[in-house]
Specification:
Blueprint lengths: L3 H13 L5 H11 L20 E5 L6 E5 L5 E6 L23 H7 L14 E6 L14 H5 L6 E6 L2 E11 L6 E3 H7 L11 E10 L17 H7 L1 H8 L17
Parallel strand pairs: 3-7, 4-6
Antiparallel strand pairs: 1-2, 2-8, 3-8, 5-6, 5-8
């Protein structure tokens, strides 16, 4: 007979694995191996290729996602910026910074409960590329808010490891590299890969789907959560409503259009 403690652990593990709804699963499969029909940025870098990733817009929902210019989506490199910098499995991160891009908003939305996002607790995704001369090549940048109405700290649906995990848009890349996420989110996606600040998930099979508009902003969520599971669970009400807007229709393969 299974003990009460063992059953509780089992149920907690099951709860952490959110099933991908059929419409989102169909979207993932239909767009995975075709060209982006509506690229809204120049080609940026996955970190494994110099110019292999664009920001792609789904016209039906207005959602934006990272798309490999051949097959697949994005990888999951680890962003250790913010309150968790240099601690735990981020102790080996060679490039951590002491704050995230929206630190002031985090303090506002949390009512001062936290000072900044913590990569060990807060599921967040890095979107947008400043492409500065110091960190990139000084070329065209991509601003999710100005270019696609994606609001800071809005909910992002992440399809990874055959599950759905929710996070927020929490940081911006200064250079050209794409596909970064907090350690907590990456570990929920790929718990058996030994991820750390210097070891990410390299396959281009992660769909980051960010939604436009005020309704996607994660204002009244559990910013003061003590665990990644608690924080992720608090995003579900907003996330589930957004995901329902995703059409399951089939994408048509098109030649990638250049974006000037």
């Amino acid at each position: 007979m299974r003990s009460t403690a063992s059953l509780a652990i089992l149920l907690a593990g099951v709860a952490a694995c959110r099933e991908v709804p059929s419409n989102l699963k169909s979207f993932y499969e239909s767009h995975k191996d075709v060209d982006c029909a509506n690229p809204i940025s120049i080609e940026y870098s996955s970190g494994q290729g110099d110019a292999d990733t664009v920001y792609c817009k789904d016209d039906a929902s207005g959602a934006v996602f990272l798309k490999d210019t051949s097959n697949g989506y994005a990888d999951a490199d680890i962003d250790c910026d913010g309150a968790g910098m240099g601690t735990g499995d981020c102790g080996d991160d060679p490039s951590g910074q002491s704050m995230t891009a929206f630190k002031d908003l985090v303090q506002e939305y949390s009512g001062g409960a936290i000072d900044d996002l913590n990569t060990h607790i807060h599921n967040f995704v890095v979107l947008g590329n400043d492409n500065s001369a110091d960190e990139g090549d000084g070329g065209a940048s991509f601003d999710p808010t100005n270019d696609a109405d994606i609001q800071p700290l809005s909910v992002v649906a992440v399809v990874c490891g055959e599950k759905l995990v929710y996070g927020v848009w929490g940081d911006v890349n200064g250079g050209k590299v794409t596909g970064e996420t907090s350690l907590s989110l990456a570990k929920q996606c790929f718990p058996d890969e030994g991820l750390s600040g210097n070891a990410g998930h390299g396959d281009h099979d992660v769909l980051y789907l960010a939604f436009p508009g005020e309704e996607a902003i994660a204002k009244d969520v559990n910013w003061g959560a003590s665990s990644a599971k608690e924080f992720e669970a608090s995003l579900a009400t907003i996330g589930d409503a957004l995901v329902k807007k995703v059409a399951a229709g089939q994408a048509k393969s098109r030649v990638m259009r250049a974006v000037l």
